[in-house]
C-alpha cells in the first residue's frame, strides 16, 4: 500500500497546525543540507580568478612528508616504505588503481615512474581523489591537470584542503541514508529524488565509488547505493558485488585487497536484505556479513563511530523485513551522534551528515507523532465500552480491553503520520472485533451454531443469531462499516458511498466466512486448509480496508484489480505461514494444529 503523507484531502478534517513547527525546521535546513553538489561552471570561473597564473602556488611551499613516514611504517607493521617492492610489485602502482595511491606522499622513496602514475589520473586531474597524492605527483611531473585540480580543491574548500576531494557521492548517500533512518524523509522528498537521480547516473555494473570522478569503486558506497536505489525503485543489479567476492568465500572492501571495516560490513548486511528471488550473490553477501557482524559483536570490537556497535546489535536483532518503520527510526535516533569522527589519512568530520539540526528535527517529529496518540486511545477505549464487549461471557473469549493499545501501536509504527488517524482507528477496531470473533469460533461446539453464522453473513441480518455474543460483535461490525463508508466516501470522491459500502461488506464477509470454514474443519477433522487460511489470516482484509484511507486516487476498476491481484495472495500466504510457525506448538498441544509447510 503506497502512502502519500501530504496528499490526503482536507475533507478528512485533519488539523495541520501541529505540523507547522516541524515544517519550519525542515525548511530552515533544506537548502543547507542538500546544497552539496558542486556547480562545475561556478568552480571553473572561480579557478580562473584564483591567482596570477604565473605564480606557482606550490613552489614556495614544498610538501614536507618526513614526519609522516614513521606513522606509515607503523601502519605497515614496521615495514619500511622502501621495502614495499618486496611485497607489492612496483608495476602495480603504474597499472592498477590500488588504495596505496591514496598516500603517494608517503611513498616517495620508492622508484616510482611518476609519468606512468599519470595514466591512473582521474578525469578531474586527481590521483585517487587525494589532494596530497595529487600534489606529490605535481611536484614530480609539473602536470597542468594536477595543478588545476588542486586549485579547484583549494578554492572550493576555502583554502583548507581535506584528505580527499570530491566525496560528493559518499556524502550525498550518507545524508539521504541518515535522513531516512531518522524518519524525517517526508520533509525532503523532492530533494532526495534529485540526489538519487544524480547518484543513479553514476551507477555501473561494477558499483560506485565515493566521488563522481573516482576511478575506484568500494564495497561500502556500492552497498549503500544499491540498497537506497533499489528501495526507491531504481533498477540496480547485485552483480556489482561479484568483484568484491574473493577466493576462499570472503568479501573485500576494495577490489583485490583484504581489508575489512565494521561500517562497510554493516552496510553490506543491510543491502543484502533487499534481495529478490534467485539473487545468489546477495545470499552469499547476507551470510558473510551476518557472520562477520556476529563475530564483531561477540568480541566487543571497538569502533571510531561512537554508537556503531549499538547499531550492529540492533540490526542483527531486527532484520529489515521484521522491523516496523517507527521502531527502527526511534532506535536510530538513540544511536545517532552529531560528533562522530571519520578516519582516512586524517580524522575529519562530515557536518552535513552528523548535524545537530537533523537530530532536533527527528526528535521534534517523533514527539509530534506521539502527541495525538493519547487522544486516539481515549476514543478507542470509549468505543470499547460503548460496544458492550464486556457483556460477552469471559468463557467464550480470551481477548479484553488490554489488547487495544497493543494493536493500536502496531499500526502506529507503520502509519504514524497525523493524517492517517482514521486508518489507525478503523484498523484497531476491526482487528479487535476479528480477534473476539476468532476466540468465539474457537469455542464453537456444533455445526448448527456455525450454520446460523453463515446465514447471518449472507444478509448481515442478526436475527439469525440466537446467542448474545454473536449479536454484539456483528452489530458492532456492521455499525463500524457504516462509519467507515461515510469517512471513506469523503476521501475518495471517485467512489460512490454505495460502492464503498458493498465493497467493505464483501471483504469482511469473506473474512468471517473463512473463519467459519476453519471452525467447521476443526470440528470435522479437516487438515488441508491453505486456500481458506490465506483469507482467514486477514492481511488482505485490512489492506483492502486501509487503502481507502491513504489519500491516493482510487477507482472501482483499480480496487477490483487489487482485490484479485497475485501480490495480495502471496502476501497473505507468507503471513499465514509465518503465523503458523509461531503458533503451531501451542495448537498441537490443544489438538488444533493446521500447519501447512
Automatic annotation (TrEMBL):
Coiled coil: none annotated. The keyword Metal-binding applies. The lineage of its organism: Eukaryota, Viridiplantae, Streptophyta, Embryophyta, Tracheophyta. Pathway: Secondary metabolite biosynthesis; terpenoid biosynthesis. It holds the Pfam family Terpene_synth. Residues 402-591 form the Terpene synthase metal-binding domain. The keyword Heme does not apply. This is Terpene synthase N-terminal domain-containing protein. GO terms for molecular function: magnesium ion binding; terpene synthase activity. InterPro entries: Isoprenoid_synthase_dom_sf, Terpene_synth_N, Terpene_synth_N_sf, Terpene_synthase-like, Terpene_synthase_metal-bd, Terpenoid_cyclase/PrenylTrfase. GO terms for biological process: diterpenoid biosynthetic process. It comes from Selaginella moellendorffii (Spikemoss). Its cofactor is Mg(2+). Residues 113-316 form the Terpene synthase N-terminal domain. Keywords: Magnesium, Metal-binding.
Amino acid at each position: 500500500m503506497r502512502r502519500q503523507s501530504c496528499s490526503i484531502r482536507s475533507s478528512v478534517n485533519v488539523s495541520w497546525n501541529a505540523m507547522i513547527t516541524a515544517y519550519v525546521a525542515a525548511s530552515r535546513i533544506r537548502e543547507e543540507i542538500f546544497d552539496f553538489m558542486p556547480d562545475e561552471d561556478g568552480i571553473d570561473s572561480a579557478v580562473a580568478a584564483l591567482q596570477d597564473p604565473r605564480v606557482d602556488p606550490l613552489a614556495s611551499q614544498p610538501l614536507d612528508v618526513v614526519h609522516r613516514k614513521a606513522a606509515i611504517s607503523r601502519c605497515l607493521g614496521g615495514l619500511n616504505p622502501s621495502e614495499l617492492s618486496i611485497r607489492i610489485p612496483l608495476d602495480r602502482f603504474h597499472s592498477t588503481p590500488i588504495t596505496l595511491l591514496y598516500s603517494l606522499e608517503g611513498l616517495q622513496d620508492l622508484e616510482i615512474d611518476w609519468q606512468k602514475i599519470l595514466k591512473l589520473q582521474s578525469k578531474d586531474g586527481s590521483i585517487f581523489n587525494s589532494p596530497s597524492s595529487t600534489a606529490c605527483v605535481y611536484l614530480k611531473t609539473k602536470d597542468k591537470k594536477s595543478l588545476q585540480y588542486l586549485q579547484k580543491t583549494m578554492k572550493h574548500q576555502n583554502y583548507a584542503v581535506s584528505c580527499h576531494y570530491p566525496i560528493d557521492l559518499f556524502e550525498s548517500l550518507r545524508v539521504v541514508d541518515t535522513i531516512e533512518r531518522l524518519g524525517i524523509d517526508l520533509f525532503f522528498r523532492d530533494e532526495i529524488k534529485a540526489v538519487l537521480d544524480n547518484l543513479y547516473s553514476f551507477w555501473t555494473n561494477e558499483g560506485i565509488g565515493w566521488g563522481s570522478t573516482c576511478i575506484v569503486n568500494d564495497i561500502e558506497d556500492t552497498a549503500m547505493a544499491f540498497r537506497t536505489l533499489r528501495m526507491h525503485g531504481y533498477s540496480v543489479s547485485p552483480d556489482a558485488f561479484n568483484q568484491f567476492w574473493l577466493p576462499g568465500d570472503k568479501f573485500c572492501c576494495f577490489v583485490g585487497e583484504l581489508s575489512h571495516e565494521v561500517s562497510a560490513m554493516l552496510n553490506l548486511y543491510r543491502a543484502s536484505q533487499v534481495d529478490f528471488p534467485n539473487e545468489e550473490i546477495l545470499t552469499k553477501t547476507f551470510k558473510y556479513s551476518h557472520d562477520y557482524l556476529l563475530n564483531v559483536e561477540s568480541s566487543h570490537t571497538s569502533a571510531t563511530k561512537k554508537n556503531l556497535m549499538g547499531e550492529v546489535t540492533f540490526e542483527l536483532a531486527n532484520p529489515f523485513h521484521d522491523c516496523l518503520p517507527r521502531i527502527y527510526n526511534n532506535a536510530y535516533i538513540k544511536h545517532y551522534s552529531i560528533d562522530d569522527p571519520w578516519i582516512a589519512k586524517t580524522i575529519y568530520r562530515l557536518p552535513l551528515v552528523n548535524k545537530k539540526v537533523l537530530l532536533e528535527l527527528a526528535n521534534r517529529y517523533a514527539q509530534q507523532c506521539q502527541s495525538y496518540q493519547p487522544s486516539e486511545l481515549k476514543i478507542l477505549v470509549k468505543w470499547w465500552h460503548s460496544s458492550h464487549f464486556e457483556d460477552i461471557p469471559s468463557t467464550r473469549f480470551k481477548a479484553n480491553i488490554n489488547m487495544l493499545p497493543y494493536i493500536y501501536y502496531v499500526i502506529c509504527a507503520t502509519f504514524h503520520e497525523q493524517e492517517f488517524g482514521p486508518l489507525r482507528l478503523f484498523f484497531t477496531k476491526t482487528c479487535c472485533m476479528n480477534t473476539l470473533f476468532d476466540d468465539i469460533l474457537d469455542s464453537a461446539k456444533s455445526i448448527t451454531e456455525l450454520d446460523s453464522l453463515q446465514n447471518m453473513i449472507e444478509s448481515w441480518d442478526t436475527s439469525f443469531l440466537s446467542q448474545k455474543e454473536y449479536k454484539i460483535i456483528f452489530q458492532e461490525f456492521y455499525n463500524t462499516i457504516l462509519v467507515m463508508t461515510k469517512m471513506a466516501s469523503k476521501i475518495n470522491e471517485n467512489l460512490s458511498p454505495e460502492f464503498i459500502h458493498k465493497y467493505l461488506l464483501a471483504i469482511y464477509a469473506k473474512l468471517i466466512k473463512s473463519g467459519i470454514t476453519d471452525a467447521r474443519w476443526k470440528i470435522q477433522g479437516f487438515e488441508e486448509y491453505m486456500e481458506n487460511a490465506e483469507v482467514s489470516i486477514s492481511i488482505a482484509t485490512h489492506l483492502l480496508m486501509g487503502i481507502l484511507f491513504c489519500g491516493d486516487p482510487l477507482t472501482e476498476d483499480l480496487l477490483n484489480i487489487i482485490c484479485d491481484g497475485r501480490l495480495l495472495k502471496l502476501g497473505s500466504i507468507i503471513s499465514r505461514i509465518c503465523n503458523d510457525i509461531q503458533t503451531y506448538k501451542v495448537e498441537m498441544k490443544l489438538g488444533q494444529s493446521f500447519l501447512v509447510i
